[in-house]
Structure formats: structure tokens, C-alpha cells
Specification:
Number of domains: 2
Shape: globular
Distance between the termini: 43 Å
Number of strands: 10
Number of helices: 23
Length: 546
């Protein structure tokens, strides 16, 4: 039965590889990045510096910028200026002033003169639209923009976009729900005016280039520095450096183009699903050897159910299958330690984890995933469940484990590990615990050195723990496995970021693996050096490493 399951997994992997090849062919040709400059910031700078707005526009054209973002007047600006607020807007505002804050930044009305200013300068206007509870007069339609910038919470009403064939730029981290075709969508990354005041030029450049290279961003929203921060000269120097950095990274400046329409056959996904459930059955039988038949039956039923769901609710089925693959294959990898030497066994673990990554790529398929209109679901679960499953194999049989006498120092250690586990879970995803400044600097140093930064959990925790586990005696090895699985699940998790170019994910995985094993080797050598040094201690001998 084990051979049959492996045959199913390998055949299914070929189907997933076909989907991955299709994705590569869609991603690779799209190398054009569009720079969009902020009109509001330009007007502020012109007022501060005395440099005419026409001159600023001319300098931008010379620097390769062709698009200017035009934003509407906000409710807060209208109220501060003492202007009249339309009755239909007042009717949408909360009665409690404490709840008024979020409404003040919402758009109220466009100024047609701003579009005229941009047109007269020979530049393209790109209106900024937001999700609002009231109607904003669509003056922007007369400008016939090629790019619409969309942001906000909730659902963007497509009626607002009627009559426009413009490309839709979704603002990263503020993405409204838009029922539009994904091959009409690009992703936009910007740096706020507040951040522009405190970040160094190098940090700004790193953020922009990283967004393009690693997150399929194809529109960069740029703001000028105000006079007190260096003014227009510094702004132009930043633009020139940004263009050079992007070209060095293999991109060119121009008009952003959406990714081509890509909708792989559901048959390929169904074949990949067979491999995922075969892997689940294989691991389930290893985890519960006394229930092999029940596990097999459950796997067959689960596969049939996923096929039904795939043809009724394909998005939900794809996300569910990807989650199963992301949980099962890191655990299965640790059970597949083939070969005689520790390096051979380590590489066999890697190969099985890569199968899981391939199945994730094979299921999370379609242009909507490339532009993050849809994404992987279950990030927290996939970071916790594999560790729990591997820990379960370590403490079996549970009854015997619970009857043991536990020293106080073990309880203290368990509490410390539990605290680290909470931090580990909160650090997953985009909006967990903040990253320390020293870690940010270390990450950027690695990024500048290697172009693509390996993931910290693989480099300094998971892969070193795997190396130590494969070198350790049998009695000590099992306790390292819950840490070792973190490296494998992080490896698979890298490929759940479907808005990251496949080549970048592969390079990040390679770096994490090579340098993670080197860190493990270094720890192993330090351990034996320290052990030998302490054994030669002829003094008090306070510590003895056994």
C-alpha cells in the first residue's frame, strides 16, 4: 500500500509541476513597473519652495514619470475650510463625535481643475477612489484615465467604474473587495508621507524594490520630500536611484500591465488533490498504525468530497487542499529520513517538503492568486498544527508520559517554550507583533547581500534543529523534531505566498536550506568544542555537558 500511495503522489506531482510551469510563463514576461507621483504632495512642495508646479511636472517627465495621482478633497478638509457638507453626506455620519474620526479622511469631491493641470503638463492623471458610504461625483471619467487607484475597506461598487476600461491598481494592505476580472488588476505599493519623513533613502529604496521583486507589485506610489527633509533635489535623486535599482533587478519603467488571464484546468487540480490526500493517508497510517484501514477509507472519502467541492466551489476547494498539503507534508517529511549519512537523510526530508510546496503551487492557481485578490487561508493553523502533530509523536504513548515525574526545571522550561510559542504564532502573518529595529536591519543586510533574504525561522531555527536532530543520539533526537518541523512548514509556507514570483520563492528556499544547515553544523561543532573544554576542566567543574 505504501508503494501505491507514493506512486499516486509522484504522478500527481507531475500534474502540479505542469501548473507551476504555466504560472512561470505568466509571471516571467511581466517586468514593467509604473511610477505614480502624488499631486497633493507636489502642490504642498510647490507652495513651500516657491518652485512652480509646471517645473516640477517637467522634472518628473525628464525622470521617466508619466502618471500623476489625483485625490479628491476629503470630508475633513472640507470641514476645516468651512465649506458646505452635502446633506446626503451628513446623513451618513455618526451622531457620536468619537466615532467621526474614520470618516474625516474619506473622499468627498474631485476638483476638475486638477485633472486639467495634469493634462496641460502632458502627463496622465490617475484618480484615487475609495470605498465610501456616499456618492462621489465621477468627474474623473472626463479625463479617461488609463489607471484607477482603488483602496479602502469593504466592497467597491462596480457601478462607479462603469464606462472605464482603465487598469485597476489595488493598494497593498488597503484592498477593497472588487468583483473585477483579475487580468484587469495590478498591485500598488506606496510609502506614506509620515514614513517619508523618518525613513532613510536606502530604507525607502529597499522597500520599493522588495515590493516589486517579491510581491508582484507593478505600480509604485511615490511622494516628494518636503523642504525641511531635503526638498525637490533629494526627491529627484531618489527617483533616479529607484530607476537604477529596478533596472538592476531586471525590471523597466513604463506603463504597468496586468498579468495575462490564467485559469488552469480543474483536471490538473483534481490530480494534485489525489497526491495531497495520498500524502495525508500515508502520514495518517504512520501516525496511527493501528487504524490503517480507517485512515485509508477516510482519505478516499475526503478525496471524493474535495472533487465535488472543486467543481461546485473551486476557490474554497483550492484553499482547503493547499492547507492540507501545507500541514501534512512538513510532518511527512520528518518521517522520510532515507539514506545512510545525515546529509542524505536531510536532503530526503527536503525533497518531501518540496513535494508539499509543489502541491500548494498546483492548487493555488489562477491570475486572482497572483494579484492577491484571493489567497491562502489558514496561516495560523499551518504554523501550529504540524508542530502539535510532531510533538504528539514525541510524547507517545500519552499514558506513560503523563505518569512520569516531572522535575520543576522541566516545568520552567516548558513555560518558557510555551511563551516562545505564543510569540511565534503572533509573529505569523502580516499584522502580528512588530519587528524589532535590529531585526529589520539584519534582514536588510541579508537582502542586500543575497538579493533575496532567507526566512529567519528556517535559517536560525528549523533547519539547524533538523541538522542537530539527524546528528544526535536516538534518545535526544526526538525532542528536536518539533523545532525541526518549523523549518519544513516555513519552507512550504513560502510557496503559499502566491503573489511572490516562483523564482524568488525557490531562491529563498535554497538560501534558507544551505545556510540553515551551515548554522546547524556550526552549532554542532561548538557543542563538541564546549563539551571537550568542560571535560578538561580541573577546577570546580560547575558545569558538565554530558
Amino acid at each position: 500500500m505504501k508503494k501505491v500511495l507514493w506512486i499516486i503522489i509522484l504522478v500527481a506531482a507531475l500534474a502540479a509541476l505542469g501548473t507551476a510551469a504555466q504560472r512561470w510563463l505568466v509571471e516571467w514576461p511581466n517586468r514593467t513597473v509604473e511610477l505614480v507621483y502624488d499631486l497633493y504632495g507636489l502642490q504642498q512642495l510647490s507652495a513651500e519652495s516657491g518652485v512652480p508646479l509646471d517645473q516640477l511636472f517637467a522634472d518628473l517627465k525628464a525622470a521617466g514619470v508619466e502618471t500623476i495621482a489625483v485625490q479628491p478633497e476629503s470630508l475633513g478638509e472640507r470641514m476645516l475650510a468651512g465649506g458646505e457638507v452635502p446633506p446626503e453626506v451628513l446623513g451618513e455620519l455618526p451622531q457620536d463625535l468619537v466615532e467621526l474620526g474614520p470618516f474625516l479622511t474619506l473622499p468627498l469631491a474631485f476638483d476638475a481643475q486638477q485633472f486639467q493641470l495634469v493634462r496641460d503638463a502632458g502627463l496622465k492623471a490617475s484618480p484615487k477612489l475609495n470605498t465610501v458610504p456616499w456618492e462621489v461625483e465621477p468627474l474623473w471619467r472626463d479625463a479617461q484615465p488609463e489607471l484607477l487607484i482603488l483602496s479602502g475597506q469593504g466592497t467597491m461598487d462596480l457601478d462607479e467604474l462603469q464606462g472605464s476600461e482603465a487598469v485597476l491598481a489595488l493598494v497593498e494592505f488597503a484592498v477593497p473587495r472588487v468583483e473585477a476580472e483579475p487580468d484587469r488588476v495590478v498591485r500598488l505599493h506606496g510609502i506614506s508621507a509620515r514614513e517619508m519623513r523618518v525613513l532613510s533613502d536606502e530604507r525607502i529604496l529597499n522597500r520599493y524594490v522588495r515590493a516589486v521583486r517579491e510581491r508582484n507589485i507593478r505600480v509604485l506610489y511615490v511622494r516628494p520630500f518636503m523642504e525641511e527633509d531635503g526638498g525637490w533635489q533629494r526627491s529627484l535623486q531618489l527617483l533616479a536611484a529607484l530607476g537604477q535599482r529596478l533596472q538592476a533587478a531586471g525590471f523597466e519603467l513604463g506603463t504597468a500591465q496586468p498579468f495575462a488571464a490564467w485559469r488552469p484546468s480543474l483536471l490538473l487540480t483534481a490530480l494534485a488533490a489525489a497526491g495531497i490526500w495520498a500524502g495525508a493517508v500515508l502520514y495518517g497510517q504512520l501516525l496511527l498504525p493501528g487504524l490503517r484501514g480507517l485512515v485509508l477509507g477516510g482519505g478516499v472519502l475526503a478525496y471524493l468530497a474535495s472533487l465535488v467541492l472543486l467543481f461546485r466551489e473551486p476557490l474554497l476547494a483550492k484553499q482547503g487542499l493547499a492547507l492540507v498539503a501545507a500541514v501534512v507534508f512538513p510532518c511527512l517529511a520528518l518521517e522520510c529520513q532515507w539514506g545512510k549519512g545525515h546529509l542524505a537523510r536531510a536532503h530526503s526530508v527536503l525533497m518531501v517538503s518540496l513535494l508539499g510546496a509543489l502541491f500548494v503551487v498546483g492548487t493555488l492557481s489562477g491570475t486572482e492568486f497572483l494579484v492577491k485578490m484571493e489567497e491562502f487561508r489558514g496561516v495560523k493553523l499551518m504554523h501550529v498544527l504540524p508542530i502539535a502533530l510532531v510533538a504528539f509523536t514525541v510524547v507517545r504513548p500519552v499514558g506513560e508520559f503523563l505518569r512520569r515525574e516531572v522535575p520543576v526545571r522541566w516545568l520552567v522550561a516548558a513555560g518558557f517554550v510555551g511563551l516562545l510559542g505564543i510569540v511565534y504564532v503572533l509573529r505569523t502573518g502580516n499584522f502580528g507583533l512588530p519587528v524589532l529595529e535590529v531585526e529589520v536591519r539584519a534582514r536588510e543586510a541579508l537582502e542586500n547581500l543575497l538579493r533575496v533574504r532567507p526566512r529567519t525561522k528556517e535559517l536560525f531555527l528549523g533547519h539547524p534543529a533538523l541538522y542537530l536532530a539527524l546528528r544526535a543520539p536516538g534518545s535526544q533526537r526526538s525532542w528536536l523534531l518539533p523545532l525541526a518541523v518549523i523549518g519544513q512548514l516555513s519552507l512550504v509556507n513560502t510557496f503559499t505566498h502566491t503573489h511572490t514570483f516562483l523564482g524568488v520563492s525557490l531562491l529563498r528556499t535554497l538560501y534558507g536550506w544551505i545556510f540553515g544547515l551551515l548554522v546547524g553544523w556550526l552549532l554542532w561543532r561548538l557543542y563538541h568544542w564546549g563539551k571537550g573544554w568542560l571535560r578538561r576542566d580541573s577546577g570546580f567543574g560547575v558545569l558538565r555537558v554530558r
